[in-house]
Amino acid sequence: MNKLWPISGGIHPPQNKQQTQNKPIIRLPTPECFYLSLFQDRGAQLGEPLQPLVTTGAQVKKGQLIAESKNNKNNHAVPLHAPTSGVIGAITQRPLNHPSGNLGAHLELISDGLDQWCPLTPNAEPFKLEKTTLLTLIQKAGICGMGGAGFPTAAKLATPFPIHTLIINGTECEPYITADDCLMQEEADDIISGALLCAHLLGASKIQIAIEDNKPLAIKNIYKALPKNTAPHIELTTLPTIYPSGGSKQLVQILTGQQVPSGQQAASLGLMIINVATVRAVWRAVRWGEPLIERATTFTGNALKQQNNVWVKIGTPVNFLLNQLGWDKNNNGLLILGGPLMGFNLNAHAALGKTSNCVIAASTDEMPAPPMEAPCIRCGQCDSVCPAQLLPQQLFWYAKNQDFNRLKNHNLFDCIECGACSYVCPSAIPLVQYYRHAKAEIRTLEFKKTKADQARTRFEAHQTRVQQAEIEKNAKRQARQTANTTIQAQLKQAAPTPSETTQKEQPTQDIEAKLNRHKQSAQERLLRLTLQAEEEKIPARKEKLAASIKQAQLRLNEAEQKLAESNAHTQSAKLTQKLQASPHQQAEQALNTLKKQLTITEEKLREAEKTNAPSLSALTLAVQKLQQKIQQATLDLNTLPTTPTQPDAATLAAAEQALARLAAKKQQSPEEKQQALKESIEKRIQQLHLRISTSDADKIPILNESLAALEARLKELER
């Protein structure tokens, strides 16, 4: 006989288990429609809903994965599987099986009546699998705690704490509930196998199975299923019946005499507590590949003609099951999910989930309406029965005044919501309801604070990125300005000798080529963004593209301005070089120009000869004159001095004026350039009229031809 320690407080309410205690677990007909909540049960209601993996109209098989969490940080989420074969319907809003009674998203499954399984993957030797493989199988099977808050079992078994003892909780201490009792009577072998597998995963050297002494058949069958001389060592411990011996911290105290510190779990003491239904589900998942799609649930209460434990498929509507058991709606006073002490009012249209262990359809005589809440008389009975050694009376006042800081300081979250304080309160104060509401408010505030902190962190990170980008942009701008200043300084340096000028031509050409590439890149980017903006339909993106187009236009203008400045400096350098050249160099440049003109004129002459154009004689004469000029220039070239000359002030002034006119011309708009071209053509037409009136007869046809071409060009511009 193992030594047991007493717990603080506790009560002995009427058990009311005889209605269903020793009856076999039965199966009822399959409903036409299942409604599978996309929110997790009970304590895991916070967080994002599961995301469906199937669409409306999809055909699914029993056990097929149909929804899972897309958020890796949602530690309360387990996958959802089809409880039978059928067709996926719509996502509907239905009451949640939760104390709030709020509506939540449910995935509808219309049964085809065939109940066909999807392919399963059994494992003949589960104990030879790696730990990571076992945890993955348990997680993918959608197994969560089936006796409490529904925390994912895989996450629980992956605890970082070293575990030396695994405690299998079969106490089921709350009145009316016998689902675990009957499960231990019928599925003892699977429960023991699951316990051994969990201990293997945890590395525990000892397994302790705890069952209250009001379950003799369960104790007998579990004892028969215990293996002999196995490691880890297995002990079956019978506990005296007291409520709430099944609470995790209370169970640890009874079995070990240790108290779990406030705010911590039993794992911090090297202990792991798992419900009997949960270890059975673990074994079925790993050994046979079955996901968690059904559980044993107690249906009791005098408003039912037949009270029994039932194998309930997850997602089955409560009213369907109640009607199958002869539900007398008119005589039903309270409909409770869970036990009478820790349970809560249930909407008959809700669907049962993985933690739904009991439904009580109590008659009006069995559970009459509670009396009106009276003022607290400070009797202290609630303090004496609290198993968590809290101060329920103080917590009540703080919860009523919404003094959340004091509630946390008085360890509100150590309250297991067992309902013992409400049970003994002579003023009929629903203390647990106050505590639940306060916990929900605190969780909501903390959730909002976490969201606000995350938003502030993201905003600060964004501001840091913006500032860093601005610093980098300023650095790049400064680098461009420095490079531009360097380029301008290089362009302003006049070449003192022809040899040095020749050496500097190549860098200047490189700079111009680079500036041309920048201009071309800016033009291509502007064109690409413009095309994207024309095709974009979303206003926000279109607005963003408009800002990018504006920036691209500014960059193009900047590139064009730099290129113009570079060209101006290049032309200035060339003019300075020309003015400083020696007479021999100037004559050589003039000779090269004459040769180019001769090449062009000869090409025109050949074209005129092919067509017998009127300008044939004029072009022949022009070729002869250019040949004579080239001969004379070649003779004069060797007689000219090679010493560089310094231009006088008047020449430099004229050169600067010419450059200014050229720069101004380049900065003209298209309209201004067209107007200047028109004025130039009109002036040339006037000059031709004057020449025609004074020229010889043989030149008049050529001049008339030029006049006709200019007049045609002028008409084209005036259109």
What does this molecule look like?
It is a single chain. α10 (392-400) crosses α13 (431-492) and α19 (670-694) packs antiparallel against α20. The protein has helices at 131-140, 153-157, 179-186, 188-202, 216-225, 248-256, 276-288, 318-324, 381-385, 392-400, 404-409, 420-424, 431-492, 498-535, 539-580, 583-611, 616-637, 649-666, 670-694, 700-718; strands spanning 26-27, 33-37, 51-52, 59-60, 65-68, 80-81, 86-95, 103-111, 165-169, 206-212, 233-239, 271-275, 294-300, 308-313, 332-337, 344-345, 358-363. The relative contact order is 0.07. The chain starts with 25 loop residues before the first strand and ends with a helix. Mean pLDDT is 85; it is low at 42-46 and 494-506. It is built from 20 helices and 17 strands. It is elongated. It has a six-stranded mixed beta sheet with strand order 1-14-13-17-15-16, covered by helices on one side. By secondary structure, the protein is of the alpha/beta class.
What is the topological layout?
Elements: E1 26-27, E2 33-37, E3 51-52, E4 59-60, E5 65-68, E6 80-81, E7 86-95, E8 103-111, H1 131-140, H2 153-157, E9 165-169, H3 179-186, H4 188-202, E10 206-212, H5 216-225, E11 233-239, H6 248-256, E12 271-275, H7 276-288, E13 294-300, E14 308-313, H8 318-324, E15 332-337, E16 344-345, E17 358-363, H9 381-385, H10 392-400, H11 404-409, H12 420-424, H13 431-492, H14 498-535, H15 539-580, H16 583-611, H17 616-637, H18 649-666, H19 670-694, H20 700-718
Parallel strand pairs: 1-14, 9-10, 9-12, 10-11, 13-17
Antiparallel strand pairs: 2-8, 3-5, 4-7, 5-6, 7-8, 13-14, 15-16, 15-17
